[in-house]
Amino acid sequence: METFINPKSLFHLLLLPCLLLYSSIAYNSSPVEAAMHTNNWAVLVCTSRFWFNYRHMANTLSLYRTVKRLGIPDERIILMLADDMACNTRNKYPAQVFNNENHRLNLYGDNVEVDYRGYEVTVENFLRVLTGRHETAVPRSKRLLSDEGSHILLYMTGHGGDEFLKFQDSEELQSHDLADAVKQMKEKHRFKELLIMVDTCQAATLFNQSPGVLAIGSSMKGENSYSHHLDSDVGVSVVDRFTYYTLAFFERLNIYDNASLSSLFSSYNPSLLMSTAYYRKDLYKRRLEEVPVTNFFGSVMETIHTDAAYKALSRRNSGRFEDEMSLDQSVHHIKRRMLIKVNDGDEIHDINPELLQGEEGASKCPWSTFRKKFQKAENVDSLLNYGLVAMIPLLVISTWLVQ
Amino acid sequence: MELSFTQGRWNYESWGGFDPISSSNAKPPGVELWAVFDVPQHHIDASWKNLTHTLSGLFCASINFLESTATYSTPEWSFPPASGNVRYGTLPCEAVCTENLTPWLKLLPCRDKAGIALLLDRPSLYRGFYHSQRGRCVLAKSSSVYLLLDRGLVAELKFPNKENGKSAANGLTSENFWSNPSFELSVNPDRIFLEESSSHSKSLSILYMFQVEKYSESEPFDIGLMWKVPVAWLCQQTPLHASRFLMGSGNERGAIAISLKSTQFTEGFMSANSKDGSCELRVDVFQVVPWYVKVYFHSLRVFVDQQPRAVSDFIEKIHVSPSKDKMSPGVMEVVLKLPCRVNTAALTIEFDKGFLRIDEYPPDANQGFDIPSAIISFPNFHASMVFLEDDSLNRSPLLSKFQEKCPVMSYTEVLLVPLTTPDFSMPYNVITIKCTVFALYFGSLLNVLQRRVAEEERFLKAKAAKKTGRLPLLLSKLSAKLRGSGINQD
Q: What positions does UniProt annotate as the active site of this protein (chain A) (predicted)?
């Protein structure tokens, strides 16, 4: 009897932990997918020092201006500038930074807020910002206070090479360090989606180890990124090609446009850039045509009007509450721009047709409710819990049969 | 607490040093922060650290570098109130730009959209030779613009040296003041204040006040001053003009010299106080030197009127806190008593340059390292102006500020000390060379031990014999050739 018992009971004993493991993994991943997109952050880093690297400063400030113009406030932007160009004594135009020869735009503006300046821009501080491990005295304006509903734009520019980025001419950030930081951020749920944009030589090698993020670099391995043009008045090159064309794309937009990321990525012409702008989206689940650029570069949120003040409910309950409200509103607000819908919009999208069929449908057939629950992404964990509970009697029966 | 951001150097020679504006407002270049703490002694360091970090986040500057023990110090006499709870730190090479101005403006109710702050056009602001912003704001109910006619200017206008024989003394304070022969104002002032009395000067300054709220969009407030005749005047200067410089050459040692020269003021002062020959001018010198400039305090020498003199003759008190390597800076506070008729005086002190570890160098180490400004103060004299005011209820904050008794202070220059810098590419070079050597050694060692050349050739031959097609045969020949071992053809 023992010889019969042992293999089968062992098999069943092993099955249970495997189920538990699987369910725990699934449970861990499901809250991230279920989190709503609530805020946008931008971390803009310029890593070069000295006057002849004016163009890197202009790159970063161009992005800063774009991101501010499209809606991200200063509190959610971490701007790291490794040197002071605007009030540099060599600058013929004090307090002004230009990215074009025609001096049309003063990027420095009147309201710039630089969080990390000069010698503070180090690899250590950069990684601390990403992972969120600061000393207690560090003020809030210098911290990346993102949560699991944040979309983060990480833009880095400077001199780089194969799998590294040079910081201030004295140290370097390696691609595996960056990948480590990104992985830590992922485990700590510090972002929902992350877009890494790198404008250096051989930029694509910097993020080739970072998994699960959307990334675009200005050049591939073995290629250099070039500056766009030289401003003979200021005396140095004022902008890099990749950022110049990025900016040309964004200057046409305002906060209400719904250009998608794929149009941004396809607007780069390799012959004009003199390098290949390479992007990776292998682990990014959504299609790029559906993602508006304001998801990362701006801050456009869907506001849901509620008639009554809502109490502080749990997340899932509040979702259902809003759905009931939106049922009334959906009759009036049928015309909605499709692309502006972000993830919570997706949920409303899914829910609306069902609710429009009639709320009676929800309570009539338990099988249909079970199917609807099965279709909803956020109930996978509860389904797994049901499945696990259902497995236990099976296990008991099989061991009894064996005995 | 006082925090100031300054770009440029206050030119004491041309712009004066005796009036309250230059004495209490002229600041050293970069960032200066001093704070008085109200907490127990052992909490002060932690509070200072929190303060510097908070300010760095608030004002977008690297003030958090002051929290490291290399840059703060505790002065004893130079700062009123003299107590042990004062902390002082300065960053001489901190850039001041628009981002430092933005938080100040955010504190104002209308930011820079209305009021006097509209005038802050960033490019023109940062184009000037000197600009400074300081943290001590009093919210006023009304705005006024003040035009201060310096004592020297008033003296010049009253008793002009030029051929204008007509005395314009009455013209400045009477009703039709704008028709005096020297200058013309486009707007008439609302009130005129006269300084009460000055113990150090014959003439008294005049303050014109213009109230901004009387003007509006239709009649904008546009004040202009036009000089009808060229007028040159000398602003009242500090009793002694202080400057500082480095002596010596090379990367090992050097000396710091503080030189004090008499100015026109001292002559006037002497003539006023020449009752007996024993009048003394007290000068306080406060200097902080970072730890990598190792000062030898025993080598302090005093030169009066270009003659070396004994230190004990002229130094009344000296308080020295020697630097600790990598821990705290060296602080020196000296109280000098110089005779009133002094022409020049100088203090020299020698130092050795310290040795930094490679990770302590800033990224642009070849620029050099800064020694912050020294503070020279003259406690005998008070830079304050008392103005006669009719209604003491409506005391404007600016006039109250002018009346505060604070000693005359001046800041010396910031010194740039070149230290020895290593070749920063050496660690990379060393690592690369060593790894190459190791790789070559172990590679060849393993090759010699493990590789059997004859067996390899036989293996290749067997592989070649197995291949039937023409193309694989060619390929195998090619690869064998590339690998360097020959293949024998049949």
A: 159, 201 (nucleophile)
